[in-house]
Amino acid sequence: MGAIMSCSKNSQFMGEAVSNEELEQVDCYVDLHLHLDGSLSVNMVKQLASEQGIDLPYSDAEIAHKLQVDDGCNDLNEYLTKFDFPNRFLQSEAGLSRTVELLGYELSEQGVMYAEVRFAPQKHCEQGLTQNLVVSAAISGAQKSPIPLTLILCCMRGDDNHAENVETVNVAAEFLGKGVGAVDLAGAEAIFSTANFRDIFALATEKGVPFTIHAGEACGPESVYKALEYGAKRIGHGVRSTEDARLMERLAKEGIVLECCPTSNLNTAIYDSLAEYPYRKFFDAGVKFTINTDNMSVSNTTIKREFIKLNEVFGITRAELKELLTNAINAAYVSEEMKKTMRGKLIN
Ligand SMILES: [Zn+2]
Fold it and tell me: How far away, in angstroms, is 294 Cα from ligand 1 center?
């Protein structure tokens, strides 16, 4: 079953609300913003530990606790501490390849037809791998996935890793179109400002590597302005753009796509409740946005759950569902031919 069901061919149904049951059935979701190390399920961790001979003396509940934030999470900095535990399983070629493959299977079961999986190669070099080997291994895992996956390589915010970030852009250029679609900038936005990373995106531009930048999440509109100045056409989160009417107009006019991740923004305390989420604000302002998971295990979510939660608060219409999925397809780092194929799956 497709996303909009057969009745979507008839425009009179497009203003109708979509039911949660229908959202459960959709099998053509697209997730453009999903971190590999934040999306290992308990089952994946158990399987990876056994394959890698790592002792895991924990119950399922204890593993889940190590992977997920609880309700007391205060901000993005605290949220980011949850990435330490899963990263120990992602330090070998076999581990990386297997994780990407297993993730592809889980996404497929959740009704995702295409996903862009991001990770920072420099975080997987603790046991001797080079960034090049890390990315090659992840690509081999993606090739075994039942759904197409494109990799996004994250540069990391920090003040002592410029050389590593430069290497990430160079590796992305080497594998561009061969499994890798873009680079990103991730990490503690409130500590290491987007303004410090001009060189990295100048290099990406010079090498012809597209990029998305996490901005307007922990920091406000100034961070989004910087990302736009560097040439980003997609913004990770970007939700705090709503604080600046001029910025909202610019996003709409330039067709910049926001990769929104509602539950993650609740975890990092940008909003107290989903009712505050700018879902209608973006539609009303004509700002293109997409719905994504960010970190399936850290935020204990799936793409389906994100849509269902939004539906319960805002009442998603058929037309909106189609628009959100179309925005994601149009912004994906894939060929026009593949976009056409995916658009065809929205109605069937
Ligand atoms: Zn993110």
Answer: 5
How many whole angstroms from 316 Cα to the centroid of ligand 1? Answer: 24
Give the domain CATH number at 240. Answer: 3.20.20.140
Using DSSP, state whether 311 is helix, strand or coil.
helix
| DSSP symbol at 232 | -
Q: How many domains does the chain have?
A: 1
- Distance from the CA of 40 to the center of ligand 1, in angstroms? 15
Q: Is residue 1 part of a domain?
A: no
For 190-194, the CB contacts below 8 A with 24+ separation are 190/75, 190/76, 190/77, 190/218, 190/219, 191/77, 191/157, 192/157, 192/158, 192/159, 193/219, 193/223, 193/226, 194/219, 194/223, 194/226, 194/227
Q: How far apart are CA 175 and CA 166, in angstroms?
A: 15
Q: Is the pTM of this model over 0.85?
A: yes
- What positions carry a catalytic annotation? 217
User: How many angstroms does the Cα of residue 33 sit away from the middle of ligand 1?
Assistant: 6
Give the range of the structural domain holding residue 206, as residue numbers without chain letter.
Answer: 6-345
| Residue-wise pLDDT tens digits, 292-303 | 999 999 999 999
